[in-house]
Design goal:
heterodimer, A: alpha+beta, 6-stranded antiparallel beta sheet, 5-stranded antiparallel beta sheet, 27% strand, B: alpha/beta, 34% helix
Chain lengths: 431, 124
């Protein structure tokens, strides 16, 4: 009837409008998934978003980028997760979704169609959950971002309902947005992992035990880039012949960290052939210059000859664009070693000069990076002068105490202001 | 510096370009650090594109020169040498001290006043 048709048409229009609004809302929520930058939270957000509005059940499958195993998330419990071997899926179904990113629809009508589920759900417990929803429609969606498929989303509607073409197209849109969020989160997590692994390489966790001297070091990264900084230190050698180095690579981030690592490795390699600091720095300079690094590196290098028991130790020092070390004598006398040289990487060939310093029992040599002298407080720069004025009180103290006291003094001077990376390394003569 | 200890390098930072015949002077005021280097890079690039005979970066009014800023000067030195002469004006512990410590004075002409730099570069 005319009248009834009109009412039906109006009701239909209202339904369409409500559907469009609900979908717009879901797209909005899918977009906001990008805010998390955490894979697990993004997955949880996605599964919560899908149920029950688009599906009764949802699971997410993502190959691990390192092992290739399949990470499974969700199912009935949004927080569930497990790992299965990649070869548990093969052929059509999920495997094809993961390989091609293309959508696959399966309808599992009854007990006989358990195979339909097994090609899409690679885990017995999840498969059992899905089986309970039969007769069900299983939709496999590729999670594709920037042209690469990083996983698949498997969603199920139970109770005999299926997905029509419009719903499949909508589900694909949601999957596309979720894929972008997941890609960002995964990239962020991988970058953080790379950063922390690099950082881990840059500093020895434990300084070696050297007969005749005591060693201590402190490292305080700048607050605004907690992950990786460009300061480094290293101590290597054997017996009574050691090379101590400390340096600073301009800039931050992975690029700076890679250069820092290369610097440290180059110093070790150069020292393998000739441990004279001036020679090590000249070799390092040529290597970094030839590598075309677009930033300079500053380094202080000291070759240390120790004697058993530690009555004295002889230091041969060279610096490349770096503040020279400070010597704190056991009687409180403080002096900065008189040696200078150009930063590494600016010119193809540079000759470095070296200075020799003799430490007696209780004397300390302190190496530091510009996070110390360039710390800014109410009275301008902290400066080397403030450092040399501060140190006499710590004459005869252990290297740990000296490093800690300097760091504390700089931090107090900063009075909450931000600072560059601070690295300190102290060698005290005597055991 | 901001209240929360966050560096707010842009406060008080300014770059001005002026010409003395074919010599362009890029005069900087404030801190040159990671936050302000992008702006300074842009200003130097813009000045260099106008094909000066020489480019002088004047750091007389700079209170802090971080390594990012020194790297920029090295990069400018490398890129501009073929088309124009390049000099830096820096005086005082905040600028000339780190430049000399790192050895920039060995690869870039370093002056303590702008007048001295201009005397060498204008009509040179």
């Amino acid at each position: 009837m005319f009248f009834g048709d009109g009412a039906a048409a109006m009701a239909d229009e209202t339904r369409q409008l409500a559907l469009a609004e609900a979908r717009a809302q879901m797209i909005e929520e899918a977009l906001s998934l990008s805010g998390s930058l955490n894979v697990r939270r993004t997955v949880l957000g996605l599964i919560t978003l899908l149920r029950p509005r688009l599906a009764d059940w949802a699971t997410l499958v993502m190959p691990d980028s390192v092992t290739g195993a399949l990470l499974l998330f969700g199912g009935r419990e949004a927080r569930f997760s497990t790992v299965v071997a990649r070869n548990t899926v093969a052929g059509p179904g999920l495997d094809r979704v993961l390989r091609t990113g293309r959508t696959e629809l399966r309808v599992a009508a009854d007990v006989l169609s358990a195979d339909e589920l097994s090609t899409m759900i690679p885990h017995p417990a999840l498969r059992a959950e899905a089986a309970e929803l039969r007769p069900a429609a299983v939709l496999g969606l590729g999670l594709t971002a920037r042209g690469s498929t990083l996983g698949a989303l498997v969603i199920i509607r139970g109770g005999g309902r299926t997905f029509d073409d419009g719903e499949i197209a909508f589900a694909e849109r949601i999957a596309g947005r979720a894929a972008m969020a997941l890609a960002s989160a995964r990239m962020y997590e991988e970058r953080s992992l790379i950063a922390s692994q690099l950082q881990h390489r840059l500093r020895p966790l434990v300084l070696p035990d050297v007969d005749g001297v005591r060693l201590a070091a402190r490292y305080r990264p700048a607050a605004e880039h907690l992950d990786i900084g460009g300061d480094f230190y290293d101590v290597h050698g054997s017996g009574h012949d050691w090379l101590v180095s400390l340096g600073d690579v301009a800039g931050k981030g992975v690029e700076a960290a890679v250069l820092t690592d290369r610097t440290r490795q180059s110093i070790r390699t150069a020292a393998y052939f000739d441990r004279a600091p001036a020679t090590v720095l000249a070799a390092l300079n040529t290597v970094l210059h030839d590598a075309g690094a677009d930033r300079f590196v500053t380094v202080v290098c000291a070759r240390m000859h120790t004697v058993p028991g530690g009555s004295h130790a002889e230091f041969e020092l060279a610096v490349a664009g770096h503040p020279a070390p400070i010597i704190l004598r056991a009687n409180g006398f403080v002096e900065q070693v008189d040696v200078s040289g150009m930063a590494v990487g600016l010119r193809p060939h540079v000759l470095y000069k070296s200075a020799t310093v003799l430490l007696n029992r209780g004397d300390t040599m302190l190496m530091f990076t510009d996070g110390v002298d360039e710390a800014r407080g109410d009275d301008g720069f902290y400066g080397v002068e403030r450092l040399t004025a501060f140190l006499p009180d710590y004459a005869g103290a252990s290297p740990e105490v000296i490093c800690e006291a300097v760091e504390q003094n700089v931090v107090e001077y900063l009075d909450g202001r931000s600072h560059d990376d601070i690295a300190l390394l102290a060698v005290t003569c005597g055991t | 510096m901001g209240e929360l200890g966050v560096p707010t390098g842009r406060v008080g930072f300014n770059v001005a370009e002026h010409w003395v015949e074919r010599v362009v002077v890029v005069a900087v005021t404030g801190d040159v650090d990671m936050l302000t280097v992008p702006e300074l890079t842009e200003a130097i690039d813009a000045a260099a594109r106008k094909e000066p005979s020489a480019l002088i970066v004047d750091l007389s009014k700079v209170e802090f020169l971080a390594s990012a800023g020194i790297n920029l000067l090295v990069a400018v030195h490398r890129e501009i040498t073929f088309s124009a002469r390049f000099a830096v004006v820096a005086d005082g512990p905040a600028t000339s001290r780190p430049l000399k410590l790192i050895g920039i004075d060995e690869i870039v002409a370093l002056y303590s006043t702008l007048d001295e730099a201009l005397a060498d570069f204008v009509n040179a």
